[in-house]
Amino acid sequence: MIARRMMMSREKDIPPTSRIRFIASKDGSGINFFQFDAQKLPPASLFTVSVNGVETAQAYSSLSFSAGDDVSIQLKTSRSYYPVFYPGRQLAADALDYILQIVEPLPEMKLSATYPMKSGYGLFRNCITLTSLLKGLFSNNPSITDFGGCFYGCNGLASVPAGLFDNTPNVTSFGSCFQYCSGLASIPTGLFDNHPNVYNFMSCFAGCSELTSIPVGLFDNNPKLVEAHYCFSGCKKLTSIPAGLFDNNPNLEKVTACFQECSGITSLPAGLFDNNPKITNFDSCFHKCSGLVSVPSDLFANNPNVIDFSACFQGCTSLTSLPAGLFANNQKVTAFNSCFYRCVYITSAVPELWARTGVTRFYGCFYGCTQAANYADIPDDWK
């Protein structure tokens, strides 16, 4: 009797967050959302599966449901743990688009009874029918350190709630987190404010072709940021870059193709990279920013360690002039190849980069710049 009372007491201690609840986007049969790598699953007898509020006899690792069903998977005992829910890493090719919406915050998930989930890599990768995210979705998983590719390819997402990652302060990487979320139109202010240890935003919003703006101060609380290459590549509807975007990121080193193919941007804020002296490579940074009309004269003034400007402004077909001293403080550069390739409407004189010593890669730097005032002075191998 005492043992039974103790068990009942323990069962009462089951946290209400020991449940996953979602709305199905289409019919499914025998679906296992917990099948990834070699994860050993707790016994099915420890979980209850309900559909539309009605308890079923289903095993949680082999679900059947219809489109629009409200499905919940409840852990019945505090003596076990919730395995990692991975709808984005299914082995079956058609198991990526069964989730329309997650209704409640995810429970604390573990790889074993004693090892909490630390990686959110690819959790919802290519979940193309996922249309919205819940604020506090990960609030029960503070041990997560990596959100790489978490929502990669979720092209049904139109927005992201403020506070989505607030209770995950140990995250170090958001690489490719929202890459190819082609329906994402906005980023909430302060999305990464609670992540002082993040160093990687590589390709975070790459391919977000509907994104129209970047909030002011997006990276203000990420002082350890090092990698921002391809971060906004392919964000074709962006019309501007907020001033001071990287002001609080003194360790930033990598910005290759950061704004590549952002064809809606018409100008760049002065001093955009003023507080980033460690940057060494601007390769393709503004490649195919075809709407870019002008470049600030001091854009690279505080980046003395840069060695590569390859294709930096290649295909910027709206540029009509270049500041004479654009690269005056970048004396370590060895590569200018294709830097202004096909910038066909430049009419001002271009910087006399060919007069420098130490530049070893320069082919096609001014290819197609036939209207430049000093085009005749440009050596043939720079054209």
Architecture overview:
This protein has 383 residues and is mostly loops. The protein has a domain at 1-92. 3% of the residues lie in helices and 9% in strands. It is built from 1 helix and 9 strands, in the order αβββββββββ. The strands form 3 sheets. The chain has a 5-stranded antiparallel beta sheet, with no helix packed on it. The protein has a two-stranded antiparallel ribbon with strand order 2-5. The longest helix has 11 residues, at 2-12. The protein is elongated.
Measured by DSSP, the beta-strand proportion falls in: 5-15%
The span between the termini is 90 Å
Strand and helix order: HEEEEEEEEE
Give the rounded overall mean pLDDT: 91
Total DSSP helices: 1
Secondary structure: number of strands: 9
Main beta-sheet annotation:
5 strands, antiparallel
Q: By helix and strand content, what is the structural category?
A: little secondary structure
The coarse silhouette is elongated
Quick structural summary:
The chain is largely without helices or strands. The chain has one helix at 2-12, and strands at residues 19-24, 28-31, 47-51, 54-55, 63-65, 70-75, 99-102, 110-112, 115-116. It has a domain at 1-92.
